[in-house]
Amino acid sequence: MMDALKKLLETQAPPLPSGIEYGQAWEDADILIAALDVQEDDRVLSICSGGDSVLALLGAGARRVIAIDPNPAQIACLALRVAAYKELEYTEMLEMFGSNPSWRRRALYVRCRDQLEPEWRGYWDARPEVLDLGLGDCGRFEAGFRTFRRWYRWLFFRRTMLRTMLCGGPRSQRLAFYHQHWDTWRWRLFCRLLFSRRVMERLGLEGAEEEAVRAEVGERLIGRLRYAITELDPIENPYLCWILAGRHAVAQPWALREENFQKIRRRLNRLEWHVISLEDYLDQEADNDGPPIDKFNLSDIFDRMPEDDAGDLIELAVNRSRPGSRLAYWNFLKRRHRPDRMDYKLRPLPHLSQALHEQDKVFFYRDFVVEEVIHP
Q: Is 178 helix (H, G, I), strand (E, B) or coil?
């Protein structure tokens, strides 16, 4: 059985030729907005990723939101989202994203097409098969989840059982479900194989070359999944629902909630985007003597960097800020925080960070870091 299961896990359809790493932003925008305390005069810099966090920060009321990403495919995702907010009605946008089933995503794209600049129009015109998946499911990261769903459903859960779990309920009921139906020897065997190097790379989790690191990640993710099922209510968790079911159900991420749709639509003229790395953008701003950045959403970009490089980039961000500015970022494989030399410039907010991490519906991160600038 072990050899057969390993073969199943390592089986995956060829990746789509889109260059998209993330079809959606795997960041809980609720805790991000709370961490950054977005104000109406704020100039906010955000890593683009799938674009959802960018739009959430825009909807939260920032005066200006600057989205950056060195991968043009991620900016293409944001550009199409912006076109959808301009052109589509709310329920149509959910179809385009993939939250709701749809057979007409190409037709919805045609309606959005004229809202795109030629560069992004050409990108999406050449990739109709990506549109068929829905924007939220078109990245390499989401392809990993499709592989995961394919095999854990076959091995462990009937659809009725999965539906019961995602409906939530009292904590005692969720605990009983977890211990009775989920935390089994087959699940733990599955996890040991899942966190082999080859499978983790196929799931888009590069950086776990050492066996000890993979083992630690595996045990931590088992614990965080237990937390998401038993301590957080699954019915209120759109990210868990997507991982396990492949779409949203009752709950939506911040940018896809109906009450936030018009907020975002009205503020789209406050948004700009650039295909550029964070380091190059900050250097460019310094050369041009641009205004300071008030808030930074840095996603998990430091996780893949050597510690010294991450510290240098944090320092560069602080130098483009002002007192009271905030940085927020996630750690997954490694712990990254401000270097000691930044003690007099940047102070951690550990109580806020921990409280928000405990609420984080994107449960798989190691920690969530919020830091405030004292002196740029």
A: helix
Q: Where are the beta strands (DSSP E) in the chain?
A: 43-47, 64-69, 271-275, 295-297, 326-331, 346-348, 367-373
What is the pTM (predicted TM-score) of this model? 0.90
Q: Where do we find the tokens 């250097």?
A: 283
Domain 29-82+253-373 sits in CATH at 3.40.50.150
What is the C-alpha separation between 327 and 318, in angstroms, rounded?
9
Query: pLDDT tens digit string along 274-319?
Result: 999 999 999 999 888 889 999 999 999 998 788 899 999 999 999 9
Residue 151 CA to residue 133 CA, distance in Å, equals: 19
Residue ranges per structural domain of the chain: 29-82+253-373
DSSP result, 233-277: -GGG-HHHHHHHHSS--S---GGGSHHHHHHHHHTGGGEEEEE--
**Are β-strands 367-373 and 346-348 bridged in parallel, bridged antiparallel, or unpaired?**
antiparallel
How many angstroms separate the CA atoms of 146 and 218, rounded?
19
